[in-house]
Design goal:
The structure holds 2 protein chains of 2 kinds. By secondary structure, chain A is α/β, with parallel strands linked by helices. In chain A, 47% of the residues lie in helices and 12% in strands. In chain A, the strands form 2 sheets. Chain A has an 8-stranded parallel sheet with strand order 1-10-9-8-7-6-5-2. Chain A is globular. Chain B contains 11 helices and 5 strands, in the order ααααβαβαβααβααβα. Chain B is globular. Helices cover 57% and strands 16% of the residues of chain B. A 5-stranded parallel sheet of chain B has the order 2-1-3-4-5. In chain B, strand 1, helix 5 (106-117) and strand 2 form a beta-alpha-beta unit. Chain A binds chain B through residues 81, 83, 85-87, 89-93, 147, 151-153, 156, 159-160, 201-205, 208, 234, 236, 238-239, 256-258, 278-281, 283-284, 317-319, and chain B through 57, 60, 62-66, 68-69, 101-106, 109, 151-154, 156, 179-180, 183-184, 187.
Chain lengths: 348, 215
């Protein structure tokens, strides 16, 4: 099977030849090319070459066009802070007072060089990689982007106490998110990963998500012209699996705080799961630990398909070594081959 | 009237905080009349209530938004009752909190609120680099330094804070918290911190523990 066949089969809740593996590597291409993280993201051709080399080395089942979280905040006037040993971080939020939402204007994707650079990388990668491997584009959800637009505390105040401003912000963010997602799909992305950590019960109560975040997700995802995966970036998902599935998303990205078997039971037949290896712990895994963790995850969620093995936060930390990534990839091939006869009726 | 147990009081305060019910929470704290014993009552009832809320977040039973709302309300409540009773905050140990490198400040805000809600005085050093945090801690002779981080590289730079404090010969205790330390429970030892906990409310007991362990 090709990677795309493998992925589509599992998304149909059937068993492909083996469990698909998404190594969500955004920064490691810089290591491949001997560049700093800042220089790596400065030119689309670096990202294209990095993604091609990473897939050649690890043999995983996707290309990942995620650059960094503050990319979209940049379009709204935000600052990106580069560090040598990790993902670029958001600087001071561009909005410091809730009143600024009243006069906020919608940015245009084509006017933001950082975003058009991602589109150029997507288009170039698509022309070199062809159709056999999914290219994953990324957006921040309208409901979660305000953490970078306003800062977390001010956003919580707007979310919980200022309904009119919240509604205006969501309308703007929805329009931006849809334009940005569809631009990536037109450039060649196969699917869009919709990062929505604020949706998680780790951040807001399920009642708040159902009242405020889920309608935004439904409306936004229905206007994105391709398949989507909702990622909670290590946040809990179990209490809202059905709510997430009803937004039209095909996949939920899950962290390791909840039992994967319970998530699989809740998601069964409705939505597929992506996860749930612990990226931070992965920085210090031995080869044996990597194999054990891969085996645990596949044993819990692999049977019957509907599962893609991945790191659970949505981005493999810079500190994870090549040896560990190779150990994960090797273990995924070894223990992920269907049928999973080594998994008993009660798990591995 | 039957005497209410501490557990009942804690449960009542917890419910009032989670319900953002300032009036009920205030009435519960004022119930015993004058300000004598107020700090003890805060320690015996409010701190455990905040601990319960933090633990519930750790178990996935309440959200960060509820932790934030309850912490903010509790901070205001304790400010008001201490001022009303003319009772000073605990001045020892001399504490400060800072966010290392990251611009995401909610974690720092939550820990600051928890400690203030427990009656402690805590200097807010904002955000800074390792060097800036060490310099300010030294200038102000901070005895317990709390560091909040969101990103893994920032967590790893706690080691620079630790070595900076050591180079200046400072006995400052370092308590760390944030997502990387929750995801890797051994990381705080790796970076040379003295303690770490999974929730903001843990900070109160951690400060107490590291302070008591000081020579």
């Amino acid at each position: 099977m090709t990677s795309i066949e493998r992925v589509l089969t599992t998304l149909g809740h059937n068993e492909p030849d083996r469990v698909p593996l998404f190594l969500l590597l955004s920064m490691h291409g810089a290591k491949e090319l001997g560049l700093s993280i800042r220089d790596y993201f400065a030119r689309p051709e670096h990202v294209v070459e990095g993604q091609l080399r990473l897939r050649e080395r690890y043999g995983h089942d996707c290309y990942y066009l995620f650059h960094h979280a503050p990319l979209e905040a940049q379009a709204w006037g935000g600052e990106v802070v580069f560090v040598e040993d990790g993902p670029p971080n958001s600087g001071e939020p561009p909005l410091t007072r809730a009143e600024q939402i009243d006069h906020l204007e919608l940015p245009v994707v084509a006017d933001c060089a950082a975003l058009t650079g991602v589109l150029a990388a997507t288009s170039a990668l698509k022309s070199r990689a062809g159709d056999e491997v999914p290219l994953i584009g990324v957006v921040m959800s309208p409901f979660s982007l305000p953490v970078m637009q306003l800062g977390f505390e001010l956003y919580l105040q707007v979310l919980l106490e200022q309904p009119e401003r919240f509604a205006r912000l969501m309308a703007l963010n929805e329009a931006f998110c849809v334009e940005w997602a569809n631009a990536q799909l037109r450039a060649g992305a196969t699917a869009i990963c919709y990062f929505d950590p604020v949706a998680s019960p780790t951040i807001v109560p399920p009642t708040t998500y159902r009242a405020l975040g889920q309608p935004v997700a439904r409306h936004t995802l229905s206007r994105i012209e391709g398949p989507t995966a909702t990622h909670l970036a290590s946040g809990r998902a179990l209490p809202i699996v059905d709510d997430l599935a009803s937004t039209g998303t095909a996949i939920i990205g899950v962290g390791h705080d909840e039992p994967l078997a319970a998530l699989k039971a809740a998601a069964h037949g409705k939505v597929s799961l992506l996860g749930n290896l612990n990226g931070v712990a992965m920085c210090r895994w031995t080869g044996e630990q990597a194999e054990a963790e891969v085996k645990r995850a596949i044993g819990a969620a692999g049977p019957g398909g509907g599962f893609i093995l991945a790191e659970g936060h949505g981005e493999v930390p810079w500190q994870v070594t090549d040896d560990t990534l190779l150990a994960v990839a090797d273990a995924a091939r070894r223990w992920g081959a269907y049928p999973l006869s080594w998994v008993g009726d009660h798990g591995p | 009237m039957p005497h209410r147990s501490d557990q009942e009081d804690i449960a009542s305060i917890r419910a009032a905080l989670l319900g953002a019910d300032y009036v009920t929470a205030l009435a519960l704290l004022r119930r015993d009349g004058d300000g004598s014993g107020l700090l003890a009552r805060i320690e015996q009832q409010v701190v455990p209530a905040l601990d319960d809320i933090g633990d519930a977040w750790g178990r996935g039973e309440v959200s960060l938004a509820e932790v934030y709302i309850s912490g903010r309300l509790c901070e205001r409540l304790i400010d008001d009752v201490l001022r009303e009773a003319n009772v000073s905050r605990r001045a020892q140990p001399k504490m400060a909190i800072a966010a290392l490198d990251d611009y995401h400040l909610l974690g720092k805000r939550l820990v600051h609120a928890s400690l203030r809600a427990a009656g402690y005085e805590v200097a807010d050093h904002g955000r800074g680099t390792a060097e800036e945090i060490v310099r300010r801690a030294a200038d102000e002779e901070i005895e317990v330094l709390l560091i909040s981080v969101l990103m893994l590289p920032s967590a790893l730079r706690v080691a620079e804070v630790r070595s900076g404090l050591a180079q200046r010969g400072l006995p400052t205790k370092v308590v760390v918290g944030g997502a990387p330390f929750r995801l890797d429970p051994d990381l705080w030892r790796q970076v040379g911190a003295d303690a770490s906990g999974p929730t903001a409310a843990c900070a109160v007991s951690l400060v107490d523990t590291v302070w008591k362990s000081s020579p």
